[in-house]
Protein backbone atom coordinates (compact mmCIF):
# COMPACT_ATOMS: atom_id res chain seq x y z
CA UNK A 1 0.00 0.00 0.00
CA UNK A 2 1.41 3.38 -0.96
CA UNK A 3 2.17 5.77 1.91
CA UNK A 4 0.55 9.13 1.82
CA UNK A 5 2.47 12.21 2.82
CA UNK A 6 1.28 13.94 6.05
CA UNK A 7 -0.27 17.20 4.85
CA UNK A 8 0.69 18.99 8.12
CA UNK A 9 4.21 17.72 8.07
CA UNK A 10 5.08 19.27 4.77
CA UNK A 11 2.97 22.37 5.21
CA UNK A 12 4.85 25.61 4.43
CA UNK A 13 2.84 27.40 7.18
CA UNK A 14 4.15 25.04 9.85
CA UNK A 15 7.75 25.69 8.84
CA UNK A 16 7.20 29.46 8.89
CA UNK A 17 5.54 29.44 12.30
CA UNK A 18 8.35 27.33 13.77
CA UNK A 19 11.01 29.81 12.66
CA UNK A 20 8.98 32.74 13.96
CA UNK A 21 8.54 31.12 17.38
CA UNK A 22 12.28 30.65 17.63
CA UNK A 23 12.94 34.33 16.83
CA UNK A 24 10.36 35.44 19.38
CA UNK A 25 11.90 33.24 22.04
CA UNK A 26 15.34 34.71 21.39
CA UNK A 27 14.01 38.26 21.46
CA UNK A 28 12.17 37.55 24.70
CA UNK A 29 15.29 36.11 26.34
CA UNK A 30 17.38 39.10 25.17
CA UNK A 31 14.76 41.53 26.49
CA UNK A 32 14.69 39.75 29.83
CA UNK A 33 18.47 39.97 30.01
CA UNK A 34 18.29 43.72 29.33
CA UNK A 35 15.67 44.17 32.04
CA UNK A 36 17.78 42.11 34.44
CA UNK A 37 20.87 44.23 33.63
CA UNK A 38 18.86 47.41 34.15
CA UNK A 39 17.64 46.16 37.52
CA UNK A 40 21.19 45.28 38.53
CA UNK A 41 22.41 48.74 37.50
CA UNK A 42 19.57 50.47 39.34
CA UNK A 43 20.30 48.40 42.44
CA UNK A 44 24.01 49.25 42.21
CA UNK A 45 23.34 52.97 41.80
CA UNK A 46 20.82 53.11 44.65
CA UNK A 47 22.68 50.80 46.98
CA UNK A 48 26.34 51.58 46.35
CA UNK A 49 26.72 54.83 44.42
CA UNK A 50 23.94 56.85 46.00
CA UNK A 51 26.21 58.63 48.48
CA UNK A 52 28.82 59.44 45.86
CA UNK A 53 26.18 60.87 43.56
CA UNK A 54 24.60 62.80 46.42
CA UNK A 55 27.98 64.24 47.41
CA UNK A 56 28.99 65.12 43.85
CA UNK A 57 29.95 68.79 43.63
CA UNK A 58 27.82 69.17 40.52
CA UNK A 59 24.68 68.02 42.35
CA UNK A 60 22.59 71.19 42.57
CA UNK A 61 20.60 69.78 45.49
CA UNK A 62 23.69 69.93 47.70
CA UNK A 63 24.18 73.64 47.03
CA UNK A 64 20.48 74.30 47.65
CA UNK A 65 20.66 72.42 50.96
CA UNK A 66 23.92 74.14 51.97
CA UNK A 67 22.38 77.60 51.67
CA UNK A 68 18.87 76.66 52.86
CA UNK A 69 19.53 78.13 56.32
CA UNK A 70 21.95 80.68 57.82
CA UNK A 71 25.48 79.32 58.09
CA UNK A 72 27.46 79.05 61.30
CA UNK A 73 30.15 81.64 61.93
CA UNK A 74 33.90 82.08 62.06
CA UNK A 75 34.65 83.92 65.28
CA UNK A 76 37.49 86.30 66.21
CA UNK A 77 37.89 87.31 69.87
CA UNK A 78 34.30 86.36 70.67
CA UNK A 79 32.70 88.21 67.75
CA UNK A 80 31.66 86.67 64.42
CA UNK A 81 33.41 88.03 61.34
CA UNK A 82 31.00 86.18 59.06
CA UNK A 83 27.22 86.22 58.69
CA UNK A 84 24.34 85.15 56.42
CA UNK A 85 21.91 87.24 54.38
CA UNK A 86 18.50 86.28 52.97
CA UNK A 87 18.59 86.30 49.20
CA UNK A 88 15.92 87.73 46.92
CA UNK A 89 14.39 84.90 44.92
CA UNK A 90 16.08 81.82 43.49
CA UNK A 91 16.49 78.44 45.12
CA UNK A 92 19.46 79.46 47.34
CA UNK A 93 17.85 80.99 50.41
CA UNK A 94 20.92 82.52 52.09
CA UNK A 95 24.36 83.74 51.07
CA UNK A 96 27.53 84.41 53.05
CA UNK A 97 28.41 87.88 54.33
CA UNK A 98 31.63 89.15 55.91
CA UNK A 99 32.44 91.80 58.50
CA UNK A 100 35.69 93.59 57.60
CA UNK A 101 36.04 91.12 54.73
CA UNK A 102 39.38 92.39 53.42
CA UNK A 103 40.85 92.36 56.93
CA UNK A 104 40.00 88.74 57.65
CA UNK A 105 40.02 87.18 54.15
CA UNK A 106 43.47 85.58 54.74
CA UNK A 107 41.89 83.81 57.73
CA UNK A 108 38.37 82.96 56.60
CA UNK A 109 38.83 82.41 52.88
CA UNK A 110 35.54 82.66 50.99
CA UNK A 111 32.26 80.73 50.72
CA UNK A 112 30.66 81.30 47.34
CA UNK A 113 27.43 79.89 45.94
CA UNK A 114 29.10 79.81 42.53
CA UNK A 115 32.80 79.13 43.19
CA UNK A 116 32.91 76.91 46.29
CA UNK A 117 34.79 77.59 49.53
CA UNK A 118 38.41 77.96 50.64
CA UNK A 119 40.48 78.03 53.85
CA UNK A 120 38.46 77.88 57.09
CA UNK A 121 35.21 78.21 55.14
CA UNK A 122 36.12 75.12 53.15
CA UNK A 123 37.81 73.06 55.86
CA UNK A 124 34.89 73.42 58.26
CA UNK A 125 32.15 73.65 55.65
CA UNK A 126 30.19 70.69 57.05
CA UNK A 127 30.19 72.22 60.54
CA UNK A 128 29.21 75.66 59.25
CA UNK A 129 26.32 74.34 57.13
CA UNK A 130 25.05 71.83 59.72
CA UNK A 131 25.83 68.58 57.88
CA UNK A 132 28.55 67.36 60.25
CA UNK A 133 27.22 64.25 62.01
CA UNK A 134 28.69 65.45 65.32
CA UNK A 135 26.09 68.22 65.35
CA UNK A 136 23.12 65.84 65.26
CA UNK A 137 21.19 64.58 68.29
CA UNK A 138 19.72 61.02 68.24
CA UNK A 139 16.40 62.25 66.84
CA UNK A 140 18.15 64.14 64.04
CA UNK A 141 20.02 60.94 63.13
CA UNK A 142 16.77 58.95 62.93
CA UNK A 143 14.93 61.57 60.87
CA UNK A 144 17.98 62.66 58.88
CA UNK A 145 17.14 66.24 59.83
CA UNK A 146 19.81 68.86 59.27
CA UNK A 147 21.24 70.07 62.57
CA UNK A 148 21.81 73.66 63.63
CA UNK A 149 25.22 74.76 62.31
CA UNK A 150 28.28 75.11 64.53
CA UNK A 151 30.95 77.81 64.79
CA UNK A 152 34.72 77.99 64.34
CA UNK A 153 36.63 79.91 67.03
CA UNK A 154 39.95 81.35 65.88
CA UNK A 155 43.08 82.41 67.77
CA UNK A 156 43.35 85.68 65.83
CA UNK A 157 43.89 88.86 67.83
CA UNK A 158 41.93 91.64 66.05
CA UNK A 159 44.35 94.34 67.23
CA UNK A 160 47.34 92.47 65.77
CA UNK A 161 45.48 91.69 62.54
CA UNK A 162 44.42 95.30 62.07
CA UNK A 163 47.88 96.65 62.90
CA UNK A 164 49.43 94.40 60.26
CA UNK A 165 46.98 95.35 57.52
CA UNK A 166 47.27 99.07 58.25
CA UNK A 167 51.07 98.93 58.40
CA UNK A 168 51.36 97.03 55.12
CA UNK A 169 48.98 99.56 53.57
CA UNK A 170 49.34 99.69 49.79
CA UNK A 171 52.42 97.47 49.73
CA UNK A 172 52.37 93.98 48.30
CA UNK A 173 53.39 91.62 51.07
CA UNK A 174 52.42 89.52 54.06
CA UNK A 175 52.92 89.07 57.79
CA UNK A 176 52.33 86.41 60.43
CA UNK A 177 52.31 86.81 64.22
CA UNK A 178 52.56 83.83 66.60
CA UNK A 179 52.42 83.44 70.38
CA UNK A 180 55.70 81.54 71.00
CA UNK A 181 54.46 79.81 74.16
CA UNK A 182 51.19 78.46 72.78
CA UNK A 183 51.60 78.40 69.00
CA UNK A 184 48.44 80.46 68.62
CA UNK A 185 48.53 82.45 65.41
CA UNK A 186 47.56 86.00 66.34
CA UNK A 187 47.68 87.55 62.89
CA UNK A 188 47.68 86.43 59.24
CA UNK A 189 47.89 89.38 56.86
CA UNK A 190 48.22 89.35 53.07
CA UNK A 191 48.11 92.37 50.78
CA UNK A 192 46.55 93.30 48.49
CA UNK A 193 43.47 91.66 49.98
CA UNK A 194 39.87 91.32 48.82
CA UNK A 195 36.33 91.30 50.24
CA UNK A 196 34.84 87.77 50.05
CA UNK A 197 31.32 89.29 50.19
CA UNK A 198 31.83 90.46 46.61
CA UNK A 199 31.95 86.86 45.31
CA UNK A 200 29.59 85.05 47.71
CA UNK A 201 26.51 85.01 45.43
CA UNK A 202 25.61 83.45 42.08
CA UNK A 203 25.73 86.65 40.03
CA UNK A 204 29.23 87.83 40.95
CA UNK A 205 30.99 86.75 37.77
CA UNK A 206 32.39 90.19 36.99
CA UNK A 207 33.91 90.57 40.46
CA UNK A 208 35.35 87.04 40.26
CA UNK A 209 36.92 87.78 36.89
CA UNK A 210 38.49 91.01 38.14
CA UNK A 211 40.00 89.21 41.13
CA UNK A 212 41.31 86.21 39.21
CA UNK A 213 42.77 88.34 36.42
CA UNK A 214 44.43 90.89 38.73
CA UNK A 215 48.20 90.60 38.23
CA UNK A 216 48.75 91.33 41.95
CA UNK A 217 46.78 88.14 42.81
CA UNK A 218 44.79 89.44 45.81
CA UNK A 219 43.26 85.99 46.40
CA UNK A 220 46.67 84.39 47.02
CA UNK A 221 47.37 84.01 50.74
CA UNK A 222 50.95 85.28 50.73
CA UNK A 223 51.35 84.69 54.47
CA UNK A 224 50.80 80.94 54.19
CA UNK A 225 50.96 79.93 50.57
CA UNK A 226 53.68 81.88 48.76
CA UNK A 227 57.20 80.77 49.71
CA UNK A 228 59.94 83.12 48.50
CA UNK A 229 63.71 83.43 49.10
CA UNK A 230 64.12 84.45 52.78
CA UNK A 231 67.43 86.19 52.30
CA UNK A 232 69.45 86.98 55.41
CA UNK A 233 66.66 85.99 57.84
CA UNK A 234 67.77 82.41 57.10
CA UNK A 235 71.11 83.20 58.74
CA UNK A 236 69.43 82.45 62.09
CA UNK A 237 68.98 78.84 60.97
CA UNK A 238 72.62 78.58 59.88
CA UNK A 239 73.81 80.11 63.16
CA UNK A 240 71.66 77.63 65.09
CA UNK A 241 73.20 74.75 63.12
CA UNK A 242 76.73 76.01 63.86
CA UNK A 243 76.07 76.33 67.61
CA UNK A 244 74.26 72.99 67.89
CA UNK A 245 76.93 71.18 65.87
CA UNK A 246 79.78 72.67 67.92
CA UNK A 247 81.39 74.41 64.97
CA UNK A 248 81.10 77.43 67.25
CA UNK A 249 80.42 77.37 70.96
CA UNK A 250 79.49 81.02 71.43
CA UNK A 251 78.00 83.88 69.44
CA UNK A 252 80.95 85.95 70.65
CA UNK A 253 83.64 83.61 69.33
CA UNK A 254 85.51 84.70 66.15
CA UNK A 255 84.67 82.71 63.03
CA UNK A 256 86.87 81.56 60.17
CA UNK A 257 85.46 84.02 57.63
CA UNK A 258 87.78 85.60 55.06
CA UNK A 259 86.80 88.94 53.57
CA UNK A 260 86.51 88.92 50.63
CA UNK A 261 85.04 85.41 50.50
CA UNK A 262 85.05 83.59 47.17
CA UNK A 263 82.49 80.86 46.60
CA UNK A 264 84.21 77.42 46.47
CA UNK A 265 85.55 76.36 43.03
CA UNK A 266 84.41 79.65 41.48
CA UNK A 267 85.66 83.18 40.94
CA UNK A 268 82.47 84.68 42.41
CA UNK A 269 83.01 86.88 45.44
CA UNK A 270 80.19 86.95 47.99
CA UNK A 271 79.98 90.64 48.80
CA UNK A 272 78.46 92.34 51.83
CA UNK A 273 75.81 95.04 51.56
CA UNK A 274 77.83 97.21 53.95
CA UNK A 275 81.31 97.13 52.43
CA UNK A 276 82.84 98.87 55.48
CA UNK A 277 81.32 96.52 58.09
CA UNK A 278 83.81 94.59 60.28
CA UNK A 279 82.93 91.20 58.76
CA UNK A 280 86.34 89.52 58.44
CA UNK A 281 86.39 86.61 60.94
CA UNK A 282 83.47 88.31 62.69
CA UNK A 283 81.64 86.70 65.58
CA UNK A 284 78.09 85.45 65.03
CA UNK A 285 76.79 88.41 67.01
CA UNK A 286 78.66 90.91 64.82
CA UNK A 287 77.79 88.99 61.67
CA UNK A 288 74.07 89.12 62.51
CA UNK A 289 74.34 92.77 63.55
CA UNK A 290 75.84 93.80 60.19
CA UNK A 291 74.35 90.89 58.19
CA UNK A 292 77.75 89.69 56.97
CA UNK A 293 77.28 87.44 53.93
CA UNK A 294 80.87 86.19 53.97
CA UNK A 295 80.47 84.82 57.50
CA UNK A 296 77.31 82.80 56.85
CA UNK A 297 78.31 81.69 53.36
CA UNK A 298 81.58 80.33 54.77
CA UNK A 299 79.71 78.86 57.78
CA UNK A 300 77.28 76.94 55.56
CA UNK A 301 80.20 75.69 53.45
CA UNK A 302 82.02 74.40 56.55
CA UNK A 303 78.91 72.78 58.00
CA UNK A 304 77.96 71.16 54.72
CA UNK A 305 74.55 70.84 53.13
CA UNK A 306 73.42 67.86 55.22
CA UNK A 307 73.88 69.61 58.58
CA UNK A 308 72.28 72.84 57.41
CA UNK A 309 69.37 70.93 55.91
CA UNK A 310 68.90 68.91 59.09
CA UNK A 311 68.58 72.10 61.14
CA UNK A 312 66.27 73.70 58.58
CA UNK A 313 64.03 70.66 58.69
CA UNK A 314 63.89 70.77 62.49
CA UNK A 315 62.47 74.28 62.15
CA UNK A 316 59.87 73.04 59.63
CA UNK A 317 61.43 73.37 56.18
CA UNK A 318 60.62 70.61 53.67
CA UNK A 319 57.44 69.71 55.59
CA UNK A 320 54.72 69.17 52.98
CA UNK A 321 51.95 68.74 55.57
CA UNK A 322 52.10 71.95 57.60
CA UNK A 323 48.44 72.44 58.54
CA UNK A 324 47.35 75.35 60.74
CA UNK A 325 44.68 73.94 59.88
CA UNK A 326 44.86 75.64 56.45
CA UNK A 327 47.63 73.80 54.65
CA UNK A 328 50.63 76.09 54.24
CA UNK A 329 52.90 75.72 51.25
CA UNK A 330 56.15 73.89 51.87
CA UNK A 331 59.18 76.01 52.69
CA UNK A 332 62.18 74.46 50.98
CA UNK A 333 65.81 73.80 51.76
CA UNK A 334 67.28 72.11 48.64
CA UNK A 335 68.76 68.63 48.64
CA UNK A 336 71.01 68.62 45.57
CA UNK A 337 73.78 71.25 45.32
CA UNK A 338 77.52 71.75 45.18
CA UNK A 339 79.71 73.58 47.70
CA UNK A 340 79.24 77.00 46.11
CA UNK A 341 75.48 76.56 46.10
CA UNK A 342 75.58 75.36 49.72
CA UNK A 343 77.40 78.58 50.61
CA UNK A 344 74.65 80.58 48.90
CA UNK A 345 72.02 78.81 50.97
CA UNK A 346 73.83 80.20 54.02
CA UNK A 347 72.47 83.63 53.11
CA UNK A 348 69.00 82.36 52.17
CA UNK A 349 69.57 82.29 48.43
CA UNK A 350 70.08 79.60 45.75
CA UNK A 351 66.87 77.48 46.00
CA UNK A 352 65.93 78.24 49.63
CA UNK A 353 62.33 79.45 49.96
CA UNK A 354 60.17 80.25 52.98
CA UNK A 355 56.74 81.56 53.85
CA UNK A 356 56.26 84.29 56.46
CA UNK A 357 54.67 81.58 58.62
CA UNK A 358 57.89 79.56 58.46
CA UNK A 359 60.14 82.46 59.39
CA UNK A 360 57.80 83.43 62.24
CA UNK A 361 58.16 79.84 63.48
CA UNK A 362 61.96 80.24 63.53
CA UNK A 363 61.77 83.34 65.72
CA UNK A 364 59.04 81.79 67.89
CA UNK A 365 61.15 78.71 68.67
CA UNK A 366 64.16 80.84 69.62
CA UNK A 367 61.95 83.08 71.77
CA UNK A 368 60.46 80.06 73.54
CA UNK A 369 63.78 78.72 74.81
CA UNK A 370 64.33 76.47 71.79
CA UNK A 371 60.88 74.85 71.94
CA UNK A 372 58.46 75.10 69.04
CA UNK A 373 54.75 75.10 69.82
CA UNK A 374 52.58 73.78 67.00
CA UNK A 375 51.22 76.84 65.13
CA UNK A 376 47.42 76.94 64.81
CA UNK A 377 44.80 79.60 64.09
CA UNK A 378 41.73 77.68 65.32
CA UNK A 379 41.23 77.09 69.04
CA UNK A 380 37.88 75.27 68.99
CA UNK A 381 35.07 74.03 66.81
CA UNK A 382 31.73 74.13 68.67
CA UNK A 383 28.09 73.23 68.07
CA UNK A 384 25.15 75.66 68.26
CA UNK A 385 25.07 75.32 72.07
CA UNK A 386 28.78 76.04 72.44
CA UNK A 387 29.73 72.43 73.21
CA UNK A 388 33.25 71.64 71.99
CA UNK A 389 33.43 69.29 69.01
CA UNK A 390 37.16 69.69 68.39
CA UNK A 391 39.91 71.48 70.27
CA UNK A 392 43.46 72.41 69.30
CA UNK A 393 45.86 72.20 72.25
CA UNK A 394 48.29 75.00 73.06
CA UNK A 395 50.87 72.84 74.82
CA UNK A 396 52.06 70.66 71.94
CA UNK A 397 55.79 71.54 71.75
CA UNK A 398 58.94 70.06 70.25
CA UNK A 399 62.55 70.90 71.10
CA UNK A 400 64.33 72.41 68.12
CA UNK A 401 67.57 73.69 69.67
CA UNK A 402 69.02 73.65 73.16
CA UNK A 403 68.07 76.26 75.71
CA UNK A 404 71.64 77.59 75.59
CA UNK A 405 71.61 77.99 71.81
CA UNK A 406 68.25 79.77 71.92
CA UNK A 407 69.45 82.12 74.65
CA UNK A 408 72.62 83.02 72.73
CA UNK A 409 70.74 83.69 69.50
CA UNK A 410 68.15 85.82 71.30
CA UNK A 411 70.98 87.89 72.73
CA UNK A 412 72.44 88.37 69.24
CA UNK A 413 69.01 89.24 67.80
CA UNK A 414 68.58 91.91 70.48
CA UNK A 415 71.89 93.40 69.34
CA UNK A 416 70.52 93.57 65.79
CA UNK A 417 67.58 95.66 66.99
CA UNK A 418 69.40 97.77 69.55
CA UNK A 419 72.50 98.57 67.54
CA UNK A 420 72.36 96.88 64.12
CA UNK A 421 70.31 96.60 60.97
CA UNK A 422 66.92 96.26 62.73
CA UNK A 423 66.59 99.44 64.78
CA UNK A 424 63.14 100.28 63.39
CA UNK A 425 61.68 97.40 65.43
CA UNK A 426 62.54 98.86 68.84
CA UNK A 427 59.75 99.03 71.43
CA UNK A 428 60.36 100.95 74.63
CA UNK A 429 60.02 98.79 77.74
CA UNK A 430 60.16 95.50 75.81
CA UNK A 431 62.86 93.03 74.83
CA UNK A 432 62.92 92.91 71.04
CA UNK A 433 65.18 90.77 68.89
CA UNK A 434 65.16 90.43 65.14
CA UNK A 435 66.92 89.77 61.86
CA UNK A 436 66.61 91.72 58.64
CA UNK A 437 66.80 90.26 55.17
CA UNK A 438 66.95 91.44 51.57
CA UNK A 439 66.44 88.66 49.04
CA UNK A 440 67.26 88.71 45.36
CA UNK A 441 64.31 88.76 42.97
CA UNK A 442 64.33 87.88 39.30
CA UNK A 443 67.04 86.54 37.02
CA UNK A 444 70.40 88.02 38.04
CA UNK A 445 68.52 90.05 40.68
CA UNK A 446 66.96 92.13 37.90
CA UNK A 447 63.76 92.93 39.81
CA UNK A 448 63.15 94.84 43.04
CA UNK A 449 64.44 92.73 45.97
CA UNK A 450 62.20 91.34 48.68
CA UNK A 451 62.46 92.98 52.10
CA UNK A 452 62.19 90.66 55.14
CA UNK A 453 62.15 90.96 58.88
CA UNK A 454 61.69 88.19 61.46
CA UNK A 455 61.55 89.01 65.14
CA UNK A 456 60.22 88.41 68.63
CA UNK A 457 59.19 90.70 71.49
CA UNK A 458 58.65 90.14 75.21
CA UNK A 459 56.99 92.57 77.56
CA UNK A 460 58.18 93.10 81.13
CA UNK A 461 57.57 90.01 83.23
CA UNK A 462 57.46 87.62 80.29
CA UNK A 463 60.64 85.83 81.25
CA UNK A 464 60.77 82.49 83.03
CA UNK A 465 57.90 82.33 85.50
CA UNK A 466 56.64 85.76 84.42
CA UNK A 467 53.18 86.66 83.24
CA UNK A 468 54.06 89.15 80.50
CA UNK A 469 53.19 88.73 76.85
CA UNK A 470 55.33 87.38 74.01
CA UNK A 471 55.01 87.42 70.23
CA UNK A 472 57.01 86.40 67.18
CA UNK A 473 56.43 88.15 63.85
CA UNK A 474 57.72 87.69 60.32
CA UNK A 475 57.11 90.17 57.53
CA UNK A 476 57.87 90.20 53.81
CA UNK A 477 57.38 93.20 51.55
CA UNK A 478 57.40 92.00 47.97
CA UNK A 479 56.82 95.37 46.38
CA UNK A 480 56.43 98.75 48.05
CA UNK A 481 56.86 100.97 45.02
CA UNK A 482 60.10 102.28 46.55
CA UNK A 483 63.26 102.75 44.54
CA UNK A 484 65.61 99.78 44.53
CA UNK A 485 68.18 101.69 46.61
CA UNK A 486 65.57 102.24 49.33
CA UNK A 487 64.59 98.58 49.75
CA UNK A 488 65.77 97.07 53.03
CA UNK A 489 64.41 94.85 55.75
CA UNK A 490 64.86 97.59 58.32
CA UNK A 491 63.34 100.33 56.19
CA UNK A 492 60.26 98.45 54.91
CA UNK A 493 59.55 95.29 56.92
CA UNK A 494 60.76 96.11 60.46
CA UNK A 495 58.26 98.97 61.02
CA UNK A 496 55.39 96.60 60.13
CA UNK A 497 56.66 93.99 62.57
CA UNK A 498 57.03 96.69 65.24
CA UNK A 499 53.37 97.72 64.83
CA UNK A 500 52.16 94.13 65.12
CA UNK A 501 54.40 93.32 68.10
CA UNK A 502 53.30 96.47 69.91
CA UNK A 503 49.65 95.50 69.36
CA UNK A 504 50.29 91.98 70.66
CA UNK A 505 52.05 93.16 73.79
CA UNK A 506 49.14 95.50 74.52
Automatic annotation (TrEMBL):
Its Gene Ontology biological processes? cell division; cell wall organization
Q: Which organism is it from?
A: Streptomyces wuyuanensis
Please name the InterPro entries in this protein's record.
Beta-lactam/transpept, Beta-lactam/transpept-like, PBPA_dimer, PCN-bd_Tpept
Q: Which residues form the Penicillin binding protein A dimerisation domain?
A: 72-150
**Molecular functions (GO terms):** penicillin binding; peptidoglycan L,D-transpeptidase activity
> Which UniProt keyword terms apply here?
Cell cycle, Cell division
GO CC entries: plasma membrane
Residue ranges occupied by any Penicillin-binding protein transpeptidase domain in the UniProt entry = 173-501
Q: What is this protein called?
A: Cell division protein FtsI/penicillin-binding protein 2
For the keyword Cell cycle, the answer is yes
Amino acid sequence: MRNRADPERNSPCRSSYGGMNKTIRRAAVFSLLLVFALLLRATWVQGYEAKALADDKHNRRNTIAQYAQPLGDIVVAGSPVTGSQRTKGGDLAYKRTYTDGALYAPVTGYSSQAYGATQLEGIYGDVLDGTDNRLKNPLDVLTDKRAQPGDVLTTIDPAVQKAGLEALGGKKGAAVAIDPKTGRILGVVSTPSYDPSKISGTTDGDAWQRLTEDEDQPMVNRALRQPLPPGSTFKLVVAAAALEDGLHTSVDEPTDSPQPYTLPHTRTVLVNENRSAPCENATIRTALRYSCNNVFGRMAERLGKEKVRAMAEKFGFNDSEQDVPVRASKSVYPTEMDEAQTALTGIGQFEVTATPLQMAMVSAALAHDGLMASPHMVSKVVDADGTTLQEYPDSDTERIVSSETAEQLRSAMVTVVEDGTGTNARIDGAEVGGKTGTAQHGENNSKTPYAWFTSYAKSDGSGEGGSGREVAVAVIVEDSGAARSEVSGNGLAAPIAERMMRAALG
